[in-house]
Amino acid sequence: MKAAAEIESKEWRIAVGSDETIARFEPALATPTGSVFVFAHGAGGHMDDRGMLPLAQQFRMRGMHVVRFNFLYRAKGTSAPDAMPKLKDCTAAVVARVREELQHHADHRRPLDGRPRGVDAGRREIRL
Question: Phi and psi for 25 in degrees, rounded to 5?
Fold first, then answer.
């Protein structure tokens, strides 16, 4: 298994049905806790908005890996949120990719979810 120091930041393209979104993995900046915070933006936001970046940094400084992603409507460049089933499908695809990418890392145990719209979409998808 790879040690935390060997985990690098990465950008992933993730298929969601016939669509695609982008997610950005950022490793923990402190001794890893074994958790990954899957960070979805709120309605009308995006993965690089001013509210997400400092909060993601705080999680990383506390030993959590962070994955930020855009819902499909943002990946397409629109601002009107998708219906909840599509948001859930997107979240499930991102969580599946997190598990796939990090399954061989010793410091990875479980993904967590965040942000209001992302929490709504992800709450039922992240069960271990």
Answer: -90, 130
